[in-house]
Amino acid sequence: MKSGDGEKLKSTDYRPAPFSVEQVKADFPILDQKVNRHQLVYLDNAASTQKPRSVINALLEYYRHSNSNIHRGMHTLAERATQAYEGTRSHVAQFVGGVLDEEVIFTSGTTEAINLVAATWGEVNISEGDEIVITEMEHHANLVPWVMLAKSKSAVLKRIPITICGHLDLSNIDEIITKKTKLVAVSHMSNVLGTINPVKEIVARAHAVGAVALVDGAQAAPHMAINVRDLGADFYTFSAHKMLGPTGVGVLIGRKEMLEEMPPYKMGGEMIREVRFDRVTWNDLPHKFEAGTPNIADVVAFDAALTYLDEIGMDKVRLHEMQLTDYAMKKLTELPSIEIQGPQEPDQRGGAISFTDRDVHPHDIATFLDSKGIAVRAGHHCAQPLMRVLGKVATARASLYIYNDESDVDRLVEALVEMRRYFGV
Ligand code: PLP
After folding, report:
1. Among the four residues 51, 96, 119, 382, which has the most C-beta atoms within 10 Å?
2. Which residue's CA is the closest to the ligand 1 atom numbered 14?
């Protein structure tokens, strides 16, 4: 299977799972526990995924054998730590389809990566009357920085609406992305609706009017093969903790020529070439954007997460999730009181399934499910404007990953049936 083909496959064509989910499950020690006297079913993966033993061990190994500050050290441990840290950078560069190592900037997460672009590229390139285009389905991380930048620069924030099926409505795209547009910032996959957006098409439209395109890949990079060059994105962002890696590590991929022109984000050690009392010059990429001591240990352990995903293969990850999403959507649809948000077609969406029950508040759904050992999220999912568009105050969200299987979905559905009996509705 070619990279990216997973998207086009029809989920029903493939069963059983393209890899042994049972074996994968066994690699995640945290899953082997009871919560509230029930075997844990973890369905909160869009918020943060669990970590395999190899990632946990990599973290321990780093602190046991290699811990040191990186780059400037002239001793063996510093050299070892630097190699491990830079090794992850190269791995990330390959994982996203092949970019230059210096185009990979480590941040604390997607949120920081987008803030970095807003505070540096945005600060220099957005002026009064310019237009920034986002979509109605953005996570606050890809929304608030642009709202604030537009306010401070007297720029205009425009948005691509969604259809009632939860797709982006691109019918008026030429009126939304115009010659005045300087930036288009769009999520690759919605954390609420699950929608996989046609980002390649949107990026092409942005470029056609001379605008820059940023893609928030926080929900896509963990779940499908990514090729940043093929998408054409000028900036692409994601978070390690949503793809088996540790918390506190994010990635900003940027085009080299753009990163070189941008001013630095944070000032301090490592990001400089020469410092005088009256003048400072900046270090080369990527160091210009990594001031101070970075999150070395977690970056090092992130490498093991990428290796784990590589070994399964991202096309198989996508295929498994597509099949399981299909199964889950069909099962949930059999419950008449449940309403699911977002596209119905599993090949057009990921495994973040937001739903409501006609008679039970989403917070009560999550609390009841927790009492049965099932972890889901409920709330606005950091997408308040989208919730308003949907006419919901909140939804419950079950989100799937590589260690989930049909038995997890069955447990969810059985618990939802029991919940209605419990609440007497
Ligand atoms: N963008 C999307 C689509 C997300 O789902 C999230 C997190 O849920 C973020 C951005 C922010 O990621 P982080 O909290 O890791 O910075």
Report:
1. 51
2. 111
